[in-house]
Amino acid sequence: MKTLLLLLGLGISQLSFALSAGQPAPHFSLSASPANPALQLKDFQGKVVYLDFWASWCPPCAKSFPLLNQLRADLGNPDFEVVAINVDEKIEDMQAFLRQHPVDFVTAWDKAKQTPALFEILGMPTAFLVDKQGKIRHIHSGFRRQDVSALRAKIEQLLQE
Amino acid sequence: MLATIMRYFWFFFCLSLLAACQPVKPWQRGSLASEQMQLYQGSLQSSLDDHVYFSKEAASGGYGVAAGGCGCN
What we know:
The structure holds two protein chains of two kinds.
Chain A (H helix, E strand, L loop, with lengths): L1 H13 L14 E2 L8 E2 L7 E7 L4 H17 L4 E7 L4 H10 L5 E4 L4 H5 L7 E5 L5 E6 L5 H14 L1
Parallel strand pairs in A: 3-4, 4-5
Antiparallel strand pairs in A: 1-2, 3-6, 6-7
Chain B lengths: L1 H18 L10 H4 L9 H15 L16
């Protein structure tokens, strides 16, 4: 019985309670650093936000950046914004990546790594599509070129709501 | 009495060792994903090696974790 309780306790501690679609996006606030301005989700209230968690060492992130930049430009809608939060250990890694993959959307470095923990991301990249009411409507894990059209359709649908 | 205390001591000692096991979070895998941490250097060489093993020995896999442990999908 004791062994069973012990195993049960250990099992529960390993469980992950990831966010799911339909839940409100957790509020976060990143303080300003020399490389990026202060950023909080509230700044984008009333907009559809593609909140992307990425790192310089993640190959699909490198693939996604030009595609996301293009998608944002193609949509050209002021009610849509891509917000990319970097989780690199060193800010220099992020800066080198952005020099190689320049983008027009908002990027920020989370020094304390509070936001990936808050959003309980399970892999890199993970993106959250947040609607105008601040609710998570879609969670996108990984990134492939062929994902863009489905993403675009989802974003357009949210923009019409 | 002493035996009971010692039993409890070892039980909690072992429990505390288990608590030290922490999974690496996806955003902590930067160092694991670096080239220096790879078991095999060079993706072309390892894919050729893999092909040789598969064609000559009908064996494949078992060279480490999928996707190099960087957590990328």
